[in-house]
C-alpha cells in the first residue's frame, strides 16, 4: 500500500471514529482521546476521556485519572481510579494503589496492588513486591518481584537484589543488580557501588559510580563526588557535585557548601546550604546553624538546629541539645539527647 493510500485510509478511519463518538460510542470516544494524547493535544484528549468516562468506560476513567495525576489534580484522579478499579480495570487498581501509597495508606495500597497483580498487571506485581520489601516481608516480596523481573521490569530486579542483600546473599544481590544495569537501569550502579564500599573495595565502588555518573545518574554522581572528596580529590569531587546540583540534587548542594566552608568562603557556603534547604536537605539546616553559631548568632543557630532536629536529623538533635545545655535548659536538652540516641540506634540497625 502506498503512503498516499495509507494516509487517505487513516483520514477515513478518523472520520468514522469521530462520527461514532459523536453518536455516543464511548469506545470511539476513548480511542479519539488516546490518539489526541499521543499527538500531544492533551486538553482535547481530556474532553473526550471525560465524555467516555461519564458514559461508563473504565479505560477512559483510567486514562482521565492518569492525565489528572500528571498535572497534580490528585483528589479527582483518585476518584476516577476508584470508580474504574471497582469496575474491574487493573491499570486503575494500580493507580489507586499508588494514590493510597502516596498518602501513607499501606494496607489499602497493598490490597489494590494485589488485585491488579492477580489480574496479571506486571507493573502492579513490581509495586506490590516493592511495598512488601519496604515492610520487611521479604518472602512475599521476592515472589512478586521475581514475577515482574521475569517480564523485564528492572525496578523489580533492583528490589530482588535488595531483598537478597537483606538476607546476606550478596552474590545473588549483585547478580540481580548487574542484570538490571544490563537492561539499562543505571540506578543499579549506586547499589553495586555501595556494596563494594561496604566490603572495602573502593576501586570497584569508584568504577561503578563513574559508570552511573557518566550515564547521567544523579545519585551516582553525588556518591562518586563523596568518594573522591573523602580521599582528597576535591577538584574532581566539586565538578561532580556541580553536575548533580544543576539537576536539583540537595545532597550535592549541601556538599558544595561543605567544600566552600572548608576553603574559608562562608558566604558561598551559606548560599549553597540555603539552596539545599529549599530543595529539602535537612543536613543543610544543621550546617546553617553551625554557620550562625560561628557568627555568635545564637538565636538563629538554635532555630536552624531545632528545624533539623524536629525532622529527625541526629546531628541537628545533638547540636540543639548542646545549645540548650549551654543556656541551662537541661531537661529539654536531655530529651533531645535521648531522641538522638534512639534515632542513631534505629539507623545502625537499618
TrEMBL record:
Chain intervals for the UniProt region annotation (Disordered): 331-350
Start-end of Basic and acidic residues biased regions: 339-350
Protein name: Tetratricopeptide repeat protein
Organism: Amycolatopsis rhabdoformis
Amino acid at each position: 500500500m502506498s503512503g498516499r493510500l495509507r494516509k487517505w485510509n487513516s483520514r477515513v478511519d478518523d472520520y468514522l471514529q469521530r462520527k461514532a463518538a459523536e453518536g455516543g460510542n464511548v469506545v470511539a470516544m476513548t480511542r479519539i482521546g488516546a490518539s489526541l494524547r499521543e499527538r500531544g493535544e492533551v486538553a482535547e484528549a481530556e474532553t473526550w476521556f471525560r465524555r467516555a468516562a461519564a458514559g461508563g468506560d473504565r479505560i477512559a476513567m483510567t486514562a482521565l485519572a492518569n492525565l489528572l495525576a500528571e498535572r497534580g489534580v490528585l483528589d479527582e484522579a483518585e476518584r476516577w481510579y476508584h470508580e474504574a478499579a471497582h469496575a474491574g480495570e487493573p491499570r486503575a487498581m494500580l493507580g489507586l494503589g499508588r494514590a493510597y501509597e502516596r498518602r501513607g495508606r499501606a494496607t489499602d495500597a497493598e490490597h489494590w496492588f494485589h488485585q491488579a497483580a492477580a489480574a496479571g498487571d506486571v507493573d502492579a506485581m513490581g509495586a506490590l513486591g516493592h511495598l512488601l520489601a519496604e515492610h520487611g516481608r521479604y518472602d512475599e516480596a521476592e515472589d512478586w518481584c521475581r514475577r515482574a523481573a521475569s517480564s523485564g521490569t528492572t525496578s523489580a530486579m533492583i528490589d530482588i537484589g535488595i531483598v537478597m542483600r537483606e538476607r546476606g546473599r550478596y552474590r545473588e544481590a549483585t547478580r540481580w543488580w548487574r542484570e538490571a544495569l544490563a537492561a539499562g537501569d543505571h540506578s543499579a550502579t549506586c547499589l553495586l557501588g555501595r556494596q563494594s564500599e561496604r566490603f572495602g573495595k573502593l576501586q570497584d565502588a569508584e568504577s561503578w559510580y563513574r559508570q552511573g555518573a557518566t550515564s547521567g545518574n544523579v545519585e551516582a554522581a553525588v556518591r562518586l563526588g563523596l568518594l573522591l572528596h573523602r580521599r582528597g580529590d576535591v577538584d574532581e569531587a566539586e565538578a561532580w557535585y556541580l553536575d548533580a546540583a544543576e539537576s536539583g540534587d540537595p545532597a550535592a548542594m549541601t556538599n558544595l557548601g561543605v567544600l566552600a566552608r572548608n576553603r574559608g568562603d562562608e558566604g558561598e557556603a551559606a548560599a549553597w546550604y540555603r539552596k539545599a534547604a529549599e530543595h529539602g536537605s535537612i543536613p543543610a539546616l544543621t550546617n546553617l546553624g553551625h554557620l550562625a553559631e560561628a557568627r555568635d548568632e545564637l538565636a538563629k543557630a538554635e532555630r536552624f538546629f531545632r528545624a533539623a532536629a524536629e525532622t529527625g536529623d541526629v546531628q541537628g538533635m545533638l547540636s540543639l541539645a548542646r545549645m540548650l545545655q549551654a543556656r541551662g535548659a537541661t531537661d529539654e536538652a536531655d530529651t533531645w539527647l535521648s531522641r538522638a540516641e534512639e534515632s542513631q540506634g534505629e539507623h545502625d540497625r537499618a
